Amino acid sequence: GRFALDYGLVVAPSCPETTVRLRCPCGPVTAFVPWDGHSSGNPVRFQSVPAFAAATDLAIDVPGHGKVVVDIGYGGAFYAFLSAQQLGLDVCSSKTKDLVNAASVVTEAVKKQFKLHHPESEDLAFLYGTILTDGKDAFSEEPTTNICVFADEQVDRSPTGSGVTARIALQYHKGLIQLNQTRTFRSSTAGSFFTGKAVQATKFGDYNAVIVEVSGEAFYTGTATFTVEEEDTLKYGFFFK
User: Does residue 71 contact residue 86 with C-beta atoms inside 8 Å?
Assistant: First the structure.
């Protein structure tokens, strides 16, 4: 009958939906979990930090591929976006290894050729990865497919929460979707689906931004218990000088 951490406190579930506030590296994120009085259900959803377009139609020289055009969006992390077709690939049918290799080359090229800026924290002003898409950015009832290659050439099994957030922000910025128009995103790796929509326009520093709501299925995969003993001299952490 207990749910999740809310700024360090245990959250008591409430019907029909429980609100869970999470402290993330990018800022506070609010999640909503269905609760019928006995168990949690699906879909779950969260509302993002302000998301924005950092750059659109940016020409980047990519080794082995020549000049490609990318968009850069922020949805809690920065990602470069481009259609896999620009790299001679198909996000739905090409081998995952080929998609990963191409996306990684794009990430490194963008890092060298474009300087990112975050309105509140320069610690967040780095490119987390590249998301290759099927190019279907205009609003449609049909799903659009993408693959997220992030960090050290890791591949997300899902369409990616922060990635969907950033992609929605870019689509809204370009006038391809309107507020509260729901889009469905499919992962090319596992075939899983998220939905996303821009629910509120806002400002974030100098950027015109949106709050994005992302929804999908979630399941329990494990629990963890952390214990602090009073005698532990490092229980409050430490700093390197």
Answer: no
| Cis check: omega of the bond before 16, within 30 degrees of 0 | yes
E strand residue ranges, 25-163: 27-34, 44-47, 51-62, 66-74, 78-83, 127-133, 144-150, 154-155
- Cα–Cα distance, 218 to 40 (Å, whole number): 10
Q: What is the mean pLDDT for each group of 10 consecutive residues in the chain (241 residues)?
A: 46 89 92 92 96 98 97 98 98 97 98 97 96 97 98 95 98 98 97 98 97 94 88 89 77
Residues 6+ apart with CB under 8 A from 155: 96, 100, 147, 148, 149, 189
d(CA 97, CA 211): 33
Which has the closest alpha carbon to 185: 169, 154, 212, 163? 163
- pTM for the model stands at 0.89
**What fold characterizes domain 49-211?**
Diaminopimelate Epimerase; Chain A, domain 1 (3.10.310)
- Cα separation, 18 vs 36, in Å, equals 10
